[in-house]
Amino acid sequence: MSSEDLVDHGRRIAALERKISQLYQRLGREEPTDVVASEDPRLIELVQAGNEMQAVKLYRELTGAGLAESKQAVDELIDTYRPAG
User: Fold this and answer.
1) CA 31: distance to chain centroid?
2) Alpha carbon of residue 53 to chain centroid
3) Cβ–Cβ contacts within 10 Å for residue 58, how many?
């Protein structure tokens, strides 16, 4: 699977997550918060492949965070998941 495919899947998932969020709001219920963007396997794969810009973009799509916050989160993931070498 190419990084473009991953980003496309990320966009589709982000759109679905927004729709789910809207449904929770309409139902007057609080969304579960047990999913952590930094544990998303697509994000980890992008980091391990050295695709930092795509990882930042995906993090922003997953979380709605700003550029600086997303860059910082991806930098932390790079420290954690960067392949040795």
Assistant:
1) 17
2) 12
3) 28
How far apart are alpha carbons 38 and 74 in whole angstroms? 8
Q: Which helix (H) or strand (E) holds 70?
A: helix 67-81
Q: Tokens standing for 65?
A: 């965070």
DSSP 49-66: TT-HHHHHHHHHHHH---
pLDDT greater than 60 at residue 13: yes
**Region 55-69: what's the mean pLDDT?**
89
User: Hey, what are 13's tokens?
Assistant: 């998932």
- Residue 85: pLDDT band (50, 70, 90) is low
- Residue 79 in tokens: 């420290």
User: 42 near 9, Cβ under 8 Å?
Assistant: yes
What pTM was computed for the model?
A: 0.58
Q: Domain locations in the chain?
A: 3-81
